[in-house]
Design brief:
rod-shaped, 96 residues
Length: 96
């Protein structure tokens, strides 16, 4: 059996971290999507126009959410990189 097969078939292999990272990535993506949909629904339903009492506050909230959600792609890349590093460290630590 090759090194990779021994690693993947070993119960002590550190593949749990990679699985956890992928599941975290899926959950983060789902939360971000739901958050965007909720924010969009709230923002559209208010229908505020320039001169309304809460117009400036709603614009600030929308701008803040936009900048926060724009960083979500970077967060996902970090999670993927962490999963790759966890697998590599586990593999090379096991093979010695």
């Amino acid at each position: 059996m090759g090194k990779a097969n021994r690693f993947l078939n070993d119960e002590k292999a550190q593949t749990g971290g990679a699985v956890t990272a992928v599941m975290t990535l899926i959950m983060v993506g789902a939360f971000i999507m739901v958050g965007l949909m909720v924010m969009s629904g709230i923002y559209d339903s208010t229908g505020l126009e320039s001169g309304d009492t809460f117009y400036n506050a709603s614009e600030e909230v929308a701008t803040g959410a936009e900048s926060a959600f724009s960083m979500s792609g970077t967060l996902m890349l970090i999670i993927i990189a962490g999963a790759v590093l966890a697998v590599l460290i586990g593999y090379f630590g096991y093979v010695r």
